[in-house]
Amino acid sequence: MTTCPRCDSTKAEAVAKSPVQGAWTVYTCPVCFYTWRSTEADKFTEPSKYEPSFKVNQADIPNAIQVPTVPSRTNH
Amino acid sequence: MAYKDFRDFLDTLRKEGQLLTIEDEVMPEPDLGSAGRAINNVSDKSPALLFTNIHGYQNASVAMNVIGSWPNHALMMGLPKNTPVKEQFFEFARRWDNFPVPVKRMDSAPFQEVEINQDVNLFDILPLFRLNQYDGGFYIDKACVISRDPSDPDNFNKQNVGIYRIQVKGRDTLGIQPVPQHDIAVHLRMAEERGENLPVALAIGCEPVITTMAAAPIGYDQSEYEMAGAIQGEPYKVFTLPGTNLDVPWGAEFILEGEILAGVREFEGPFGEFTGHYSGGRSMPVIRIKRVYHRKNPIFEHLYIGMPWTETDYMVGVNTCVPMYQQLKDAFPNEIVAVNAMYTHGLVAIISTKKRYGGFAKAVGMRAMTTPHGLGYCKLVIVVDETVDPFNLPQVMWALSTKMHPAHDVIILPDMSVLPLDPGSNPAGISHKMILDATTPVAPETRGHYTQPLDAPLATEKWEKIFQDLLSNQ
Q1: Are B180 and A72 in contact (CB < 8 Å)?
Q2: pLDDT of residue B372
Q3: What's B6-101+110-313's CATH class?
């Protein structure tokens, strides 16, 4: 488990390793779905350096606007 | 003539000097996204890009900016690469009238060379990367997404081929943005009302005509494949994915097969959009991928999107102008001359028209706002005389400079509909709209001093032709 640079969840995990061994690892966060590669600049990979205005508050995620909204079930 | 597949088109670009192959090693980030941005900063005749040496990958190829200039757009249509934009517009409109051209069905497809149907990991299969700095992840933004109408699944014409922004969110999961106005949102709504998943296929790395049609605002029951046949001048080749009723472009490099999960919404974004702003994070549908096909040594096609102009603006330029032109012609067949709705996908549009009487041009502007595309765009419509080329911005500026009177020719319509991605809309999806009438007043509107317009010297057109021929032979 790894800390997500964007929402600070500690549930991020590695999802891919480079075909050329040791070049990089890709991580995803199952909470805010941020994805990053280990070779990116630290402002995209380190929680303390991620741009504050693009940080995601975990509490806001359930309130995000639905596009499109889920329709009611109807009988066809 | 038609391009057999994506590789056939890349070969043509290479022969025409419109493909730049970069064999030096590049980093997935920030090099690929930066290069996609930079190529349109340095030239409006820019080549496509093919990267063949990406750090950490073995044998991965990434193509970008494939129709990201007017020369490449002309070659997409099989025209000489120096064809002026206005001529590309009229040729596109002429071919549009040949719709529909029935498809050609194929028994097998090159992408069947490799099939992955278990333990799908998209991060291993595709050379994915981040485009813009604060994109929420790695996106697929130039895939043709194919779906059927769940209430009428055997109706070929209601099968949709569209391009949507797609975030890769997990090994086998994607987020997709079906804006409610899009055809796939109609399919998804029907499926969700039934409590059913919506089967979809994503085709990545297609020849450019179907990509262009997938990005065009055509009618719900008009087939993008049959329109692609009209634009390329011969039947479009499709292949029905085994075990499904989804027809996909025969020549695709990759096919991702899966379902949009009924009733599921998950956090997605933000994503740098064609408005030059990030979209913000929203809750969007999720696709589960269960099977992937691809050619051997597949080429992954991607598209840079951001502040105009980028490849996006070339891709949705002419194919947005032409349907609006056709719809305006339906209303005013003897007056409409040309439509340029290429600015931020038509948030600004310029229409060239004849006038029947005073006030007519303003009515044309209002009609543009009530076309299907105009309902979400056309925040500003500039109307110019039939003698002004709407694709020639200096001419349009001249018309605004000399023909428009702010007391009479500025019409503001309050609280109209606009796409929610317009960062100026408030609330999102609502904006005032404006018509600027830059046509010459005609009776009963007799203001101004316009009786002595200046004509060009007599042989100007002859010399234009001479120069075009000389320049094209250089």
Answers
A1: no
A2: 87
A3: mainly beta
Q: What is the DSSP string of B65-90?
A: -TT-SHHHHHHHTT--TT--HHHHHH
B238 neighbors B246 (Cβ within 8 angstroms): no
B273 is catalytic: yes
Q: What is the pLDDT of residues B413-442, one digit of tens each?
A: 999 999 989 999 999 899 999 999 999 999
Per the annotation, does B162 bind a ligand? Answer: yes
pLDDT at B153: 97
Residue of B207, B273, B301, B335 marked active site: B273
Which residue in B138, B193, B270 is closest to A35 by CB distance? Answer: B138
Whole-angstrom CA distances from B295 to B6, B7, B53, B312, B428 are 11, 11, 19, 26, 42
ipTM of the complex in this document? 0.97
Q: Which residues of A touch B266 (CB under 8 A)?
A: 33
Q: CATH classification of B317-447 is 3.40.30.10, yes or no?
A: no
Q: Report the domain count for chain A.
A: 1
Determine what percent of chain B falls in helix, strand and coil, rounding each to the nearest 5: 30, 25, 45
First-last CA distance in chain B:
25
Which amino acid type is present at position A4? C
At residue B181, the pLDDT reads 75
Contact B241, B255 (CB under 8 A): yes
The rounded distance, in Å, linking the Cα atoms of B160 and B227 is: 12
| DSSP designation for A73 | P
Distance CA B465, CA B103 (A): 38
Q: Which two tokens stand for residue B223?
A: 């087939």
CB pairs < 8 Å spanning A and B = 119
Distance from the Cα of A3 to chain B's closest Cα (Å) equals 15
pLDDT band of B217, cuts 50, 70, 90 = confident
B25 touches chain A (CB under 8 A): no
Domain boundary assignment for chain B: 6-101+110-313, 317-447
- B123 lies within 8 A of chain A by CB: yes
Chain A contact for B357, CB < 8 A? no
